[in-house]
Amino acid sequence: MEIRFGHSPQETKAMSTEQLRENYLVQDLMQADKLTLVYSHYDRLIVGGVKPVGKTVLLKNEEELKSDFFLQRRELGVINVGGRGLITVDGEKYSLDKKDCLYVGRGAKKVNFSSSAKKDPAVFYILSAPAHQVYPTTKYTKEQAAPVTLGDITTSNKRTIYKYIHEEGIQSCQLVMGLTVLETGSVWNSVPPHTHTRRTEIYFYFDLPEEQRLFHMMGEPQQTRHIIMKNNEAVISPPWSMHFGCGTSNYGFIWGMAGENKQYTDMDPAPVPTLL
Ligand SMILES: O=C[C@H](O)[C@@H](O)CC(=O)C(=O)O
Ligand SMILES: [Zn+2]
């Protein structure tokens, strides 16, 4: 498993394009029949992905965890952004259509991922955080995620937000997870921008056409940087960083967090006119 340590705002300020990408961008997440995991020391979030095509892929233990099995001291959230997939948790089977979410509680010993059809494989995005208590393994469809529409076409940010794992949804220790889909013609996400030093956040962009790119904004509000991203890539947003972006077309993205609280609304706004 790749390990990434944290960086301060001061260090980040001096980073080149290459250094920003090395430290914050997570590429090649969705490989065929191979689970990819990156351990970030920001809130000890593990971000990962797998596209099962011909095989069933096991969530195997990682030696860096020094545990008996992957979820011995952790919880896990999974959202499918591909064709219908199957997740088995200690013998219990869960079928996940596109945009369905499964929370797996601490203590689950055997978790594996497969696709219903080889020609339309599942694309599973995974996020895991340390956990101190067992909450039940729970599935939500996108309809159960209480979708809300926000933004406006006149500011190119009309979008629907689906919340799955949060204070009023699926219960967890510290993991919060959901996704946002932008309407045709809307390209800006998460405006007005914000920070929340109480939580780390990771964004994963999906349904971005091959020839299009996403300009992900990061940094402190008066020290902004950007990272140019492709479809199915993730980006780590340290607690001190803003996270918003603009695409050359519309797209969707999964947001996930861990830290002090699970309050979706706990954000410190960084109003657009104050940005530098
Ligand atoms: O802390 C919350 C997150 O940054 C996102 O949920 C924001 C988002 O999905 C949006 O405004 O579209
Ligand atoms: Zn946020």
UniProtKB/TrEMBL annotation:
Catalyzes the isomerization of 5-dehydro-4-deoxy-D-glucuronate to 3-deoxy-D-glycero-2,5-hexodiulosonate. Pfam families: KduI (PF04962). Zn(2+) binds at residues 194, 196, 201, 243. NCBIfam families: PRK00924.1. GO terms for biological process: D-galacturonate catabolic process; D-glucuronate catabolic process; pectin catabolic process. It catalyses: 5-dehydro-4-deoxy-D-glucuronate = 3-deoxy-D-glycero-2,5-hexodiulosonate. This is 4-deoxy-L-threo-5-hexosulose-uronate ketol-isomerase. The gene is kduI. Keywords: Isomerase, Metal-binding, Zinc. One of its GO terms (molecular function) is zinc ion binding. The keyword Metal-binding applies. Belongs to the KduI family. PANTHER family: 4-DEOXY-L-THREO-5-HEXOSULOSE-URONATE KETOL-ISOMERASE. Its cofactor is Zn(2+). Pathway: Glycan metabolism; pectin degradation; 2-dehydro-3-deoxy-D-gluconate from pectin: step 4/5. Binds 1 zinc ion per subunit. SUPFAM superfamilies: RmlC-like cupins. Its EC number is 5.3.1.17. The keyword Isomerase applies.
